[in-house]
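By convention, each integer encodes one residue's backbone shape. The lines below illustrate.
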Amino acid sequence: MSGVVQIHVEGNLDEDSRSVMNPAIRIPGAWSGSGFFIRYNNLKGYIVTNAHVVRNAVKIKISSMLTSEERFEAELVGLVKQLEPDVALIKLSDKELKRFDSLASGAIEYLELGEVSRLTRGEKIKAIGYPMGMVEPNISGGEITNFVSGSEYSTERFVTDAAINPGNSGGPSVSKDGKVVGLNTAVMLDAENIGFITPAGFVKIIIDNLLQLNEPFFAGLGGKLQKNAANFNALLKQSSPKGVIVASVTANGFLESAGIQSRDVIISINGIEFDRHGIIIGKEEQFRHKNIYDVIKLAPIGKEVELTYIRNGETKTTAANAMRNPEKGIRSHPIISEREYLEVFGMIIQELSFEIIEAMRAIDANARIDMLQIIDQDKPVLTVTDVRQGTPADDMEWPVGELIVKANDQDVHSLNELKTILNENKNGKVLLECRNGRIGYFQVGSSDT
């Protein structure tokens, strides 16, 4: 418990749709969570927590049972913005760590991430944290009850019946040998005794990337997969449906780098074999559906990964360095301070994001459907997210949700491209055209701009 801390945060509420549609609007709030001092090389003062605890924080402070009710300012090292997995790293400055040590009643216990690849159901754990704003750390006991395998978009999670309540987020789940099996992450609402833990292996990858590469990303396959089946035996010249079929290969991604093509069948990665569903084959995995996505995400970015695959009935081997998936044009922008926008002609214009698409659910369902149809586009798309009354955009009855594709008959995909066209026509007119054909003709440089 002397290694577990309470985290106190003042910041902005990122889930408020008003700040999504108009990033100039900030909704202040205060909340708390948990974290723990991590043993990593010879570093001191580094604390692991959940990304959602410190995302959009303006001020972060920590307190510990070692230092009464004193609070110490912490700095954000980095976090996984999209919360997959929900991991962040903060630290005390040298000055604050020195002050902490001078006030502490004992030494900080730096917790070690354990090796959990052979973790089984029924293994007992203790979840430690500060639930419901308690000022002393709380311990709840339970077991690992299940495993939830990852997907293209999510990471593996452990399931536990140990009580994980609001405020517990970011604390450690510890095994009987005192090592951290994972990070307390979430609880399933409307269910009894079902909590989720981010495995220690994923936490370590994130720490490595943040401290060494400053990139909290996992490696990705860079393509789409589909399950294999006996019906494909003749087409793929396979004797049995082992391994998964590559449905498509993303440009500049890992599979392309490895020379993999559509309709190749991946049967193993780094010697780990998969069945036709993409699940690991082997006795150890008999009661745990760890899959191909879980394997590739635990490959450190930049390290060589070996693939065995079948093409036209012939088994081949290839290799490529693990890399993150190439980014698409439509991205997630959960950090409020990083949301760029342009206020012009009485409109707020932003590059379309998943947060905007979700906020449109309550504004215009039809516009949201139009947005969903372009989420795989390679380039960004500009959208109108706010319109002020009595402005040129309002006079032309432009609604929120319009997707701008052209300015003065030039294709525009980014705010910078639009700004360039506006600057080139400072005292003239600009014709904006939307994806659905709607047009707007605006005077640049007017008082309403």
